[in-house]
């Protein structure tokens, strides 16, 4: 499995170097969508864990993520969420059309390449120029794929101003994240 973190030239990412084998997707242009396409290209046909550069890991992240992926390697897996059902239902499969937040998620063999191909023809790109998660949702909907939403979440979103869209809330955080491992 490839572990690919999308980042920008503005971010300090030294704290993530402790992840064994981590790869970084950085492009010169400040374009989150194109950086996501680059990360998908880097993944190729391999299974891949896709990350953003503004996350906090739980203490057992590598062990936890490998265990969960090992048990569900054919599934799309979401490791960050902000849904109320996370508190009441917990881990569950969700209709792919509801996929949101691309902070930390897993794509099985071949899916990164398939989504990359889909991304070039995505009809809502002009409407949502930074909407890589919305594009993934549209792909999953088209293919009738559900994704596994893991609770408690293994990552959280750092409380900070978004580099993608400064109008976004700085407090887009998980409802179930626990710093200790699962």
Structure description:
The protein is α/β, with parallel strands linked by helices. The chain is 26% helix and 19% strand. It has a single domain (2-157), classed as Spore Coat Polysaccharide Biosynthesis Protein SpsA, Chain A (Alpha-Beta Complex), CATH 3.90.550. The chain has helices at residues 32-43, 61-71, 85-88, 111-119, 132-143, and strands at residues 2-6, 23-25, 48-52, 55-57, 76-78, 92-95, 104-107, 146-149, 155-157. The strands form two sheets. It has a seven-stranded mixed β-sheet with strand order 2-1-3-7-5-8-6. A two-stranded antiparallel ribbon has the order 4-9. The longest helix has 12 residues, at 32-43.
Short overview:
The protein has 182 residues and is of the alpha/beta class. It has helices spanning 32-43, 61-71, 85-88, 111-119, 132-143, and strands at 2-6, 23-25, 48-52, 55-57, 76-78, 92-95, 104-107, 146-149, 155-157. The longest helix has 12 residues, at 32-43.
